[in-house]
Amino acid sequence: MDIRFDGKTILVTGSASGIGRGIATEFAASGGNVAVADINLEGARKTAAELESAHGIRALPVHADVTRKASVQDMSARVMERFGRIDVLINNAGVTLSYPLVEFPEDKWDLTLGINLKGYFLVAQAVVPHLIAGGRGGVIVNIASKTGLRGSADNSAYSASKGGVVIMSQGWCREFAKHQIRVNCVCPGNVLYGSGSWSDEYKRACARKLGIPVEDVEKFYIDQVPLKRPCSIQDVANLAVFLASDRAAYITGCAYLVDGGQEMR
User: Fold this and answer.
1) pLDDT, mean of residues 83-100
2) DSSP tally for the chain: helices H, then strands E
3) Residue 1: what pLDDT?
4) Which of 12, 17, 140, 218 is the most buried (most CB within 10 A)?
5) Spans of all domains in the chain
6) How far apart are the first and last CA of the chain?
């Protein structure tokens, strides 16, 4: 039996492009109505229009700066006005900035923690009251990272933010279980293609860290994976959709690696 979300509303932050867009697409293909939330409103509009055309669902493009409480509160209100319900929240909006510790600019640290950790907090704070008021329970899936389970060099802020997401999610699991709201994390491996995280700037930073030519960075990371391929956007979307579905009805408080075995232990 296919996983279906007919009649349900899924809010995905950072979904104008990259991993968020892939997740939104998979939910739309499963019949869910999708709120495409992103700081890039034009990109959100384009994605929403494509989802409606391809899958016959309703999609709402909505601007959201996840670092600003007023913005995410407005986002949540607009989604409720359009759909009358929120069933699933996918916290995905994020940024990856890499510097050695002693060179890490304070403003870049603040930006990373502001988007990747505080942003998840603010979005959940805006959405959870609607999940509770709906009386149907609900699901939160937070997109973390393998780096949130084991830190990596030159990634102080990203590691701290994603590790914080994992622990914060465990707390939410306990806090919201009485409302039948499940909370889990997806921890992707290296999404080398199609993800905003693996920008040319980030690959250059990895090359400097590893002491190898930038053209060898992708091969280096693929070689770390037992399955010998990078994590794909579809890999992440598949797990997010499963965790949001009734097939995962007894799963909460967990963080799942999607990394081809790279971090097995």
Assistant:
1) 96
2) 9, 7
3) 46
4) 12
5) 9-191+232-258
6) 33
Given a contact cutoff of 8 angstroms between Cβ atoms, the answer to whether 191 and 230 are in contact is yes
Radius of gyration of the chain (CA): 18
CATH class assigned to 9-191+232-258: alpha beta
Sheet with 9-13: strands ordered across = 59-63, 33-38, 9-13, 88-91, 138-143, 181-188, 255-258
Token output for 226: 């037992």
Q: How far apart are CA 263 and CA 67, in angstroms?
A: 30
What percentage of the chain has pLDDT greater than the value 90? 89
CA 228, CA 211: separation in Å to the nearest integer?
A: 22
Residue linked to tokens 């994590």: 231
* AA letter at 21: R
pTM of the model: 0.95
In whole angstroms, give the CA distance from residue 230 to residue 217.
Answer: 12
Give which of 220, 210, 201, 209 is closest to 262, Cα–Cα. 220
Distance CA 152, CA 115 (A): 19
Residues 183-229: tens digit of each pLDDT: 999 999 999 999 888 888 888 988 898 999 999 999 999 999 999 99
What's the whole-number mean pLDDT along residues 29-44? 98
Secondary structure of residue 260 in the 3-state scheme: coil
Q: Is the pLDDT of residue 173 over 80?
A: yes
**What tokens appear for 109 in the block?**
């640290």
